[in-house]
Specification:
Blueprint: H1 4-7, H2 9-17, E1 21-22, E2 25-26, H3 27-50, H4 58-69, H5 73-85, H6 94-125, H7 129-140, H8 149-159, H9 161-170, H10 173-196, H11 200-209, H12 218-229, H13 234-262, H14 275-292, H15 298-309, H16 311-327, H17 337-360, H18 366-369
Antiparallel strand pairs: 1-2
Length: about 375
């Protein structure tokens, strides 16, 4: 962490407040991880029906608000991973990286990917040896369930983690700023503008530059470490909040406007690499660090820690309960969406948490499955 002599006394006081630690864990990170998991469920519940309601209807606007305002969840999960794994103060050997992180993701991919594929096959053809074989083959081909694609991306980030750790270890604050500028322009801004207003000349220039180092989700990954390590002054913090609010308005309002203009749902501004989602994600992370991460109430911090420790497992299994709801013909349109989304989110989360907690108690394999 930057020393107090470099950042000033006010910022050091705020930094110490924002880093309440419980048992070696950052309280604000645990709280953010738990809330991000709820946001993922909201995205999946609201998003599953957003395309099934008339554009411009009351249901459309409610679901668009829920869906759009929680799309920061995936970038924040990536930032939470980067804030710890890229920290040079914490040792990360090759064996620890592989067995503690990469292997865990691969096991989860195989086990849960096969389980979801089997559910799909059984629903279509019934339970049989052939359906089981087809499920395993589908998983081996990488045709996994939609939410498990996140795991492939995380394995990719883990593979380049040693290189990124070397970068953050030697980078100055100005180096980080230049890196984030390149990420924002070539990952967030230009691709989104090209999706909305295609231009072959700009696209050709972007492709010819071949700036692969800053592409994908690596910017969010490094940003998590940066926001944990460097302290923001008041002006920067408030500017981030304002930009985050602007991002939220663009996400919800822009999606509604584009959809009404084209007469069908347009989700361009929902992309996790769009600039509006990036601004929202940074604002949420900063807000949890400086505002919501200061509680000294031990009982609450312990509850958040227990939820955060199984959040990965909840992510893996929650879609099973979405499938169950679908089989029961229960959706966020079954009753007023403004109430249905939070109510069904709570049901799915609690059921998922209970199942994951039980699985986590299985000796040896529990930690790899949750």
């Amino acid at each position: 962490e930057i020393s107090c002599s470099l950042v000033g006394s006010e910022m050091c006081i705020r930094d110490s407040m924002s880093k309440t630690v419980t048992g070696g864990r950052l309280a604000y990170a645990d709280l953010l991880r738990a809330v991000a998991m709820l946001a993922v469920i909201i995205v999946h519940l609201a998003g599953s029906q957003l395309g099934n309601v008339p554009v411009g209807s009351a249901e459309f606007h409610v679901l668009n608000a829920y869906d759009g305002l929680t799309h920061w969840c995936v970038p924040v999960f990536i930032m939470l991973s980067g804030m710890f794994l890229l920290d040079p103060k914490h040792s990360l050997s090759s064996s620890k990286l592989f067995f503690g992180h990469i292997l865990r993701m691969l096991v989860a991919l195989v086990v849960w990917g096969t389980a979801y594929a089997l559910v799909t096959q059984v629903s279509a053809a019934g339970l049989s040896w052939a359906s089981n074989k087809a499920a395993q083959w589908q998983e081996l081909q990488g045709k996994t369930h939609f939410h498990l694609r996140f795991l492939y991306m995380m394995v990719g980030l883990y593979l380049i983690t040693p290189i990124l750790r070397a970068f953050v270890r030697g980078a100055s604050r100005a180096d980080f700023h230049w890196f984030f500028l390149l990420c924002f322009v070539f990952v967030n801004l230009l691709p989104t503008l090209l999706r909305l207003w295609p231009n072959e000349t700009v696209r050709l220039w972007v492709n010819n530059l071949n700036l692969h180092l800053v592409l994908g989700y690596v910017g969010y990954y490094v940003l998590g470490y940066y926001l944990k390590t460097y302290t923001l002054n008041r002006a920067a913090e408030y500017l981030i909040y304002l930009l985050g609010i602007l991002g939220a308005v663009v996400t919800v309002g822009g999606t509604a406007w584009l959809s009404q203009q084209r007469g069908t749902l347009v989700q361009t501004l929902y992309n996790y690499d769009s600039p509006n989602i990036a601004l929202m994600s940074v604002a949420v992370f900063v807000f949890f660090r400086y505002v919501l991460g200061v509680s000294e109430e031990r009982s609450r911090r312990q509850r958040m820690s227990s939820v955060a420790q199984v959040s990965f497992g909840v992510y893996l299994v929650h879609v099973f309960f979405l499938i169950v709801l679908d089989r029961l013909h229960i959706t966020v349109l079954s009753f007023p969406p403004v109430l249905a989304v939070p109510a069904l989110t709570a049901v799915v989360f609690l059921c998922s948490f209970a199942v994951v907690w039980l699985i986590s108690k299985i000796p040896l394999v529990g930690r790899y499955l949750t």
